[in-house]
Design brief:
Helix content: 55-70%
Largest sheet: 4 strands, antiparallel
Number of strands: 6
Distance between the termini: 28 Å
Radius of gyration: 43 Å
Oligomer: single chain
Strand order of the largest sheet: 2-3-5-6
Shape: elongated
Strand content: 15-25%
Amino acid sequence: YAFAKAKAYAQQPDASLLTREQAVELMLANNYDIQIAKNSELIAENNTSVLNSGYLPSLQGTAGASIDEDDSKTDFNGALDDNGVPRTDIVINNAQTTQYNAGLSLSYTLFDGLGRLYNYKRLKEQYQLSQLQVKSTIETTTVQLMSVYLEIARLTENEKIFQENLQISKQREQRAQYQFDYGQVNKLEVLNARVDINADSINLLNARQQLRNTKRDLNLLLNRDLNESYAVDTTVTFQNILMIDSYLEKVEQNNIRLLQAESTLQISDYDIKTTKALLLPRIGLSGSYGWNQSENPATAFFPSTTRTSGNIAVGANLTWDIFDGGSTINNLRNAKIAYKNEALFKSQLEQEVARDIANAKGDYENALAIYRMQEQNVLTNDDNFNRTQEQFKIGQVSSVEFRQAQLNLLDAVTIKNLAKYDAKLAEYQLLQLVGQILNTPL
């Protein structure tokens, strides 16, 4: 049709072509939301380590040292020794007493009512939930990315169409100018053609500005230079409807929202079991080793001494909170209610997902039907424009009729482009709901 050249030009290969697959790779590597979600996943993974399980013993070491310095004087008050000689007073200055100690204490919980077991399982389930959250973020961002990508493709085609439309108007203005020069038409025909050229030029400028703005939106999602220049692939291929129907049979296994709800429900079940463990006794083992050394200075009656000692102790203990004021029982009741709420939420979510999928499938089929109809509408308007153009050349139709046929074709082509990319976006949204957006070709 009249804009076939523009369409062919829009699909020519470009050295800076950014394919859908390349865009997704850049998104996975650079997008901020995905990076944040992956970091949260790493935290959840760290929490599932044996270092956070409570199954390892605790070992504590202590050490200390002290130095005392004393001055002393022993006065015998004229007492005589064995030879009858008065005893001499004994003065000791700067007498140091040095003490050292070190110890190790080991404690281990042998049994805590299985609280550690269920808490560890809860942490592992939270890690799986974080993985689902990462996948959910990637799916949502992918659909957002494809929405912007398809909009760029639509604007790219529209730009070429508006450019071709402007060329047609310029040819018409040139033809009217020749006819005016030879006295075949009045000046009004030339002025009308120029008015239409201005209108087509404005449409082209607006399309180019929209295209530049939307490319910046995509660069923002890809976390790269906002003014990065590139072209996109305007080719659109739709999935086989039978393949999509097969995806509908596995929604419960693949829909990310349902999987998250199931994981959250399992976490609530572990919360109940962890709380129940507080009602049972706890058995622990303990052991310690201590070492002491004391260096004592000489006194008036004893020489200096050094004393070293060590001791080992092993023990077991049982702790049972027979009644803690009822807080554990109350927490257990609340945990059971929370579990019921999660079960209700999951049931509600199953209905919502079923509705969303039914709506999305209907929207997709409707969008495809509209696109097929718009394709036929373009063919009809293209035929009408070609006939009108031939009649305009031989003077059988007016410039007003020619312009109307031109605008009708322009509208038909742009509406068809919109319908095509709307249908493809509806397909992406449906694939997201059935959990296959990351498993099918884009």
